[in-house]
Amino acid sequence: MKVEEKLALGFFRTDDRSHIVLDQEACRACDPKVCLKICPAGLYSISEETGEVVVEYAGCLECGTCLLACPKGAIRWEYPRGGYGVQYRYG
Amino acid sequence: MEGLDAVVVGGGLAGLAAAYRLAKDGLSVILFERGDHPGSKSMTGGRLYLEPVRPYLPELWEDAPLERMVTKERVTAMAEGASVTFEFTSEGLRRPQPHSWTVLRSPFDRWFGEKVAEVGGFVIPQRKVTDLLKEDGKVVGVVAEGEEIPAQVVILADGVLSPLGEKAGLRGPLDPRYAAVGFKEVIRLEQGEIEKRFGLREGEGLAHLFFGSITKGVFGGGFLYTNRESLSLGLVVGIEAFAERLPAEMPELLEEFKARPEVAPLIEGGELLEYSAHLIPEGAHRMVKRLYGDGVLLAGDAAGFALNHGITVRGMDFALASGALAAQAVKEAKERGDFSTGSLARYEELLKGSFVLKDMEAFGHTSEVLAHERLYDRYPYFLCSLAEELFRVGAGPKEKISRTLWRFAKDLLLDSKTWKDLWRMREL
Q1: Which of B239, B245, B273 to mutate to test the interface with A (most CBs of A within 10 A)?
Q2: Which residue of A has its CA nearest to B280?
Q3: In principle, which of A3, A57, B159, B409 could form an S-S bond with A18, CB 3.0–4.6 Å?
């Protein structure tokens, strides 16, 4: 099963502003890009259009793994606003 | 809000235990939770060791939504294409009372939030505490998305990343060396089917841990817990060790684990209900400079209270006990009318008198022992190769068991690294 399908079963209330902001300059210089592999929700990818790292913040499980693992400190990450983000029903 | 005794930040187990004890003892308390309800941001593997917690919260458990009492323990060492499993069960795990239970945190914490409200505590969901109110270096309340809420004391139970613990100057940012990510699937199965499949009596449960090749040489392991009508199946993976090697894509690791012949039949026919992830403190108490300050206390994951002992993994019991003890310290501080650092030092004294700091001090270095990569490749491989030699009957004459054991023992024990590892393991 693909991780996108797993995430689709979850309940997310998505804010219109992302709680994850990337420093694209630092990302360009980064190799290997740890975020592409380490996110358990697989939310990080390289945009085909721009070649930049993009993050699908709407599916974020709010674990903070990317924040800790980023070797460049290029991820500005905070918890979503109150009432937004993932709402676990089982946990 | 004038005259509020305490604000608790975070509706996980530490925060809920603190708010419950405070409200029960007649103090005015508000708990802020950023999710829809307490538990909506919580996640566990899942097993709660209830026995250590009972003295601190004795009256609470009658109607708690516990899933199954654990009466069967399994540990599996996984190599490529082979595994060795150890299973333990005993009447002692059932009587005089079960020592541990599987839990699902969303319903569990939600129930606990209702208990807090029943004894007069206020639980305010969907509110994120964004900052601390300070006056001359003393914490005098919180700021929740613009609104200022003054209080005599603030209990920070804001979780493993604890952004507010950092703001209070009590701890530094979480270091990737001292954290692992746990991620899991909750898979629905009929109650009777679970009991049949895992050989369990009604209401009884299994806790199954896996280690070895499934994490590809990286610190961590797999877990399977039986809930009433579901299974919690997942992996724990060390952040720094994984980032150094990048042996796979993280979500793919779980798919490979699920496809193992030891696991696939156990979840067959089950329906995926939820996918979740959370960080786990693994020696993260090193991030904490002080457990209390002027008008502020740190509890649960935020304080780095969790212990991975290899075959027992604990955190929720530490969270509950530390929350209850934070409340105790606050209650005594109120009696003295003094919420200063010196007065709140009582919190550390209480923790030191309890299993929380006793165990943290005794076993605080286990994460270094368990970070050792040979635990995840060489030793599981060794166990499986030995079992293969012992159990397999091939063409030609069979070797004496004593001879096989000697051959393997020699091979292992002549290796100086093994002795070093054994020496390290005395920490466990």
Answers
A1: B239
A2: A63
A3: A57
C-alpha dist (Å) from residue B370 to B4, B309, B365, B388: 44, 8, 9, 26
Of A59, A23, A36, A7, nearest in space to B242 by CA: A36
Name the band, by pLDDT with cuts 50, 70 and 90, for residue B1.
very low
The complex's ipTM? 0.98
Does position B334 have pLDDT exceeding 80, yes or no? Answer: yes
> Angle, nearest 10°, between helix axes B316-336 and B355-363?
130
Four-CA torsion B89, B238, B367, B90, nearest 10 degrees:
0
What is the chain B residue with the closest CA to A9? B274
* B253 pLDDT more than 90: yes
Mean of pLDDT values over B324-347: 98
Cα B16 from Cα B27, distance rounded (Å): 14
Q: Which residue in A3, A10, A65 is closest to B279 by CB distance?
A: A65
Q: Is B252 helix (H, G, I), strand (E, B) or coil?
A: helix
Cβ A88–B107 below 8 Å, yes or no?
no
What is residue B62's DSSP assignment?
A: T
pTM of the model: 0.96
Rounded to 5 degrees, φ, ψ at A49 are -70, -55
User: What's the token pair of residue B122?
Assistant: 């206020």
Three-state DSSP state, B76? strand
* Contacts of residue B150, Cβ cutoff 8 Å, sequence gap at least 6: B1, B2, B4, B133, B140, B141
Name the DSSP class of A10: S
Check CB contact of B300 with chain A, cutoff 8 Å: no
With CB atoms and an 8 Å threshold, state whether B251 touches A83: no
Domains and CATH numbers, chain A: 3-10+18-79 (3.30.70.20)
B204 contact partners, CB below 8 Å, separation of at least 6: B68, B69, B70, B71, B72, B94, B195
Report the gap between the CA of B391 and the closest CA in chain A (Å): 35
| pLDDT tens sequence across B169-207 | 999 999 999 999 999 999 999 999 999 999 999 999 999
Contact yes or no for B242 and A41 at CB 8 A: no
